[in-house]
Amino acid sequence: MACGSTKLWNGEATWFCCGSAWGPCASAGGGACGTCRSSALQAAWPNASKACWDITRPDLCGEDIPRRGCGSVMKVRHDCSGASVCVTVSDCGPRTRGFCSESTCCDGVCRTNRVIDLTPAAFSAIGSLSSGTLPVSIFE
User: Fold this and answer.
1) 3-state class of 13 per DSSP?
2) Are 45 and 89 in contact (CB under 8 A)?
3) Is 34 left (phi over 0), alpha (psi -120 to 50) or beta?
4) Cα gap 39→119, rounded to integer Å
5) Burial of 6 (0-12, 13-18, 19+ CB in 10 A)
6) pTM of this structure
7) What is the pLDDT of residues 7-50, one digit of tens each?
8) What is the residue-wise DSSP string for 86-111?
9) Which of 50, 47, 107 is nearest to 78 (CA)?
10) In the chain, what are the domain boundaries?
11) What CATH class is the domain 7-139?
12) 57: how many CB neighbours lie within 10 A of its CB?
């Protein structure tokens, strides 16, 4: 999987478990793309499609996030530790509009608004699941 170095976005990363919607980890389903697996290095992007955008509405938080569909590859870098992971878009999310102005900081670096959800496998590659959110930069 090729992982890019062109800056795409900054914001908060959270983690989720693949399911048929925003269900619990044990729920069945492959997410909006049909390929989501919690054990894989994957992500949910709030503008994976128009239907996705209509649900997540990051624009209501001032985020005009570009569309990147199912199968798009991104590099997500933890802005404090520098750890990074390559992920493939496999679902729609996070519901950015529900967390407008939420901020995560470390070492004086702060990022605002949830802009990407990572599977547990991807999130734990760059941070601790117990932290819940991380300030990140996203590249393609």
Assistant:
1) strand
2) yes
3) left
4) 7
5) exposed
6) 0.92
7) 999 999 999 988 755 555 656 678 889 888 888 999 999 999 99
8) EEEEEEE---GGGGTT-EEEETTEEE
9) 107
10) 7-139
11) mainly beta
12) 17
